[in-house]
Automatic annotation (TrEMBL), chains A, B:
The keyword Hydrolase applies. Residues 221-242 are annotated as: Disordered. Keywords: Hydrolase. Residues 221-231 have a biased composition (Basic and acidic residues). The keyword Hydrolase applies. Residues 8-199 form the SGNH hydrolase-type esterase domain. One of its GO terms (molecular function) is hydrolase activity. InterPro entries: Iah1-like, SGNH_hydro, SGNH_hydro_sf. This is SGNH hydrolase-type esterase domain-containing protein. CDD domains: Isoamyl_acetate_hydrolase_like (cd01838). It comes from Elliptochloris bilobata. Pfam families: Lipase_GDSL_2.
């Protein structure tokens, strides 16, 4: 059996998803013997730059199309256009167009299911503190370079793209803020600390179980027989069909 | 750039290596943007059964041969032939022959580096307790089905195979027992709990850094440009060569 692939495509929130408690590691563990989880996270990337990777990350002629692709961008697109992260800013209209192009390309490359993940919430005081620590006190570090209200606009745009393209959307902006003290899930007001990683992992695994039940781990076969089923006397017989 | 692959081939100690703190997740994190870590762990398998997977897991005609393969078997081969795990037992002489065949096949399939990992230590009282909990009190559960002394013989055999084939060997049996209170690294006297997972991860990353310096994360290129190097005005130019 050729094991199916799950591809995690996104920015640093994806790139760092194999840290302790992370959703990448969590998916790999949940789908051991069932699916290969492929990490395609690109720290700092917005959707404009991500589009330039599409043909390489998802070649249309791929021999083994992905069974599931998670598309998790927006945290950098939502950087404000007149502050520290201006370089990364992409207007919300273009963000929507880019997300749509990404989903359409990934489907054209054979992906069976595409799952959109909205950007998570932003804790502004922690961003200010982080920027001040990184760059020193200055007028530019007195105001956050991302805000939670703007993150919400990008999350809403991702949801609209999902609806229009009939792709399921995990609304992480809302899901994380349902947790009391959600600010403590973020290490720098944007990235997940270990508790945040675990919260995202749980949200994603629950979402898959509910919205994509054919992809539940127990709905997917293991590759090769369980060691309990191997014929002790003639083990090769147990592998004839696998 | 086609990202190189690291393949983790082994038994349950490999299959479970994406649990919290695990070496699979740790390698994926350490090699983000640099290498794909592919999990090929088969719980309960000994080397006799693992050999039956070789042509499928490591096809000789593979388009993308592995850059690194870890081969981590022996925990099941070392089950005693006259106790509960008898089904999994493989004599140490055959274990050596099988390991040699695995390394030779993996190299023939194009792997650049093969790293052997010896079985880890066994904490016998915890095995007795585990077996009693799993199967109830009985004469067969009063004695451990694996012993630390026998695990050492398999670890020694793996080291000899590595020397003979000029393959580096991480001696986990010795490395873990160097830690005071090493018994507390195991959940059931055999598998790693979270502290054990972290200890194995550290041992493996240090071993790679020391013995395979060309595979150190900082010696391997990232795929695609850093977001800091993308030309804001003409982003496509930044991807022309990648």
């Amino acid at each position: 059996m050729l094991r199916p692939r799950f591809v995690l495509f996104g920015d640093s929130l994806t790139q760092r998803s194999f840290e302790d408690g992370g959703f990448g590691a969590g998916l790999t563990s949940a789908y051991q013997r069932k699916a290969d989880v492929v990490l395609r996270g690109y720290s700092g990337y917005n959707t404009r730059w991500a589009r330039l990777l599409l043909l390489k990350v998802f070649p249309v002629s791929s021999l083994v199309p992905a069974k599931l692709v998670t598309v998790f961008f927006g945290a950098n697109d939502a950087a404000l256009p007149d502050r520290l992260g201006a370089r990364q800013h992409v207007p919300v209209k273009e963000y929507s167009d880019n997300l749509r192009a990404i989903v359409e390309h990934v489907r054209r490359a054979g992906a069976e299911d595409v799952l959109l993940i909205t950007p998570g919430p932003v804790h502004e005081p922690a961003r200010v503190q982080h920027n001040r620590e990184e760059r020193g006190a200055a007028p530019s570090t007195e105001v956050p370079e991302r805000t939670n209200a703007v993150a919400e606009q990008y999350a809403a745009a991702a949801k609209r793209v999902g609806q229009a393209l009939d792709a399921p959307v995990l609304d992480l902006w809302t899901a994380l803020q349902r947790e009391p003290g959600w600010e403590a899930l973020l290490s720098d007001g944007l990235h997940f600390n270990e508790a945040g990683q675990r919260a995202v992992r749980e949200a994603l695994l629950s979402f898959i179980a509910e919205r994509l039940p054919h992809l539940r781990p127990d709905a997917m076969p293991d590759d090769f027989p369980s060691h309990r089923d191997i014929d002790e006397a003639c083990p090769a017989d147990s592998f004839a069909e696998s």
